[in-house]
Each structure stands twice: as structure tokens, then as C-alpha cells.
Amino acid sequence: MIMKGKIIKYGDNINTDVIIPARHCITLDYNELASHCMEDLDASFIHKVQNGDVIVAGENFGCGSSREMAPIAIKASGISCVIAKSFARIFFRNAINIGLCVIECNKVVRDAKEGDEIEVQFDEGKIIINNKNYGFKKSDGIISSIIKSGGLMNFSKEKMIDNK
To answer: What is the pLDDT of residues 82-129, one digit of tens each?
Structure first.
């Protein structure tokens, strides 16, 4: 799985309330959620994000409430991957459950700049920014399989079909 796009960069402690404000969590329409993604933190986000782009952020990304709509809004906006120094545990799990690629890589966070071109080679554990290579610890088999399937529900359906 290879993801390519531009970097959209944020700092530490980006909480779920700014990823998708609670006032917009009254719908299950993913496109509607995406249209409000990051609006309280970065009003320009929805206008600059393109399919395949990658969020790079600091420590404790996704802290705050446990709303699953936060990674849904990010993924629905076109973001292919979030790379951070660390993630709030519940956000990390929710992201995997909906098939959003999440990677911890301190060196990328340190070196990446807003607008840089990025390529994430998920299966190889490799990230390329401006012709510089970075490695990251690849996810174990089950997490990788869930993300590649597009989330836990798709993964479960595939397993049920395989076991028939």
C-alpha cells in the first residue's frame, strides 16, 4: 500500500474536539463530517486538503473525547495517513477500526514541513520526503490487514467470506 500527497502539519495535543467539533457530530454523513474537519483549528484545511494528503503532527494526536467521528472525518476529507510522535490510545484504535493509516515516527515529525511532498510505503515501513528516506515500525499482521481492508467491518466481512 503506497500513499502519496502533500503534508499538512500541526503541533501537539490536537484533540478530537478540533478535529470534528461536537456541534457537527449530529450526522452520519461522512461527506458532511469531512466538510467540517479541522475547522476550529485550521479554517483553510478543507480548502487545501487533496486526496492522498498526509497529516503530520506532534504528540498526543487525537486526545480528548473518544468520538469515532474524528478519524472518520479525517479519512473522509481525503487524508490517507496521519503520522505523529504519539497518538491518544482511543483515537489510534478508532483510526484502525475505520481503516485510517496511523504511524508513529518522530523523525518525520521533526523534519517535515507544510506542503512537502510525501510518499508512505506502508508495507515496507518506509516514508520518503524530499528524497530523504525514513523508517518506521510496521504494524503487526492483524492491524496492517485491518487498515488494508478499509477498516474492521470490511476485514470481518472478508474473513467471514473466506471461512465459508
So the answer is: 999 999 999 999 999 999 999 999 999 999 999 999 999 998 999 999
CB distance 55 to 82 below 8 Å: yes
**Number of domains present in the structure of the chain:** 1
Q: Which domain holds residue 111?
A: 2-162
Which residues, 6 or more positions from 142, have their beta carbon under 8 angstroms from its beta carbon?
none
* Cα 72 from Cα 158, distance rounded (Å): 21
Q: What is the CATH number of the domain that holds 10?
A: 3.20.19.10
pTM of the prediction?
A: 0.91
Spatial contact of 119 and 127, defined as CB atoms under 8 Å apart: yes
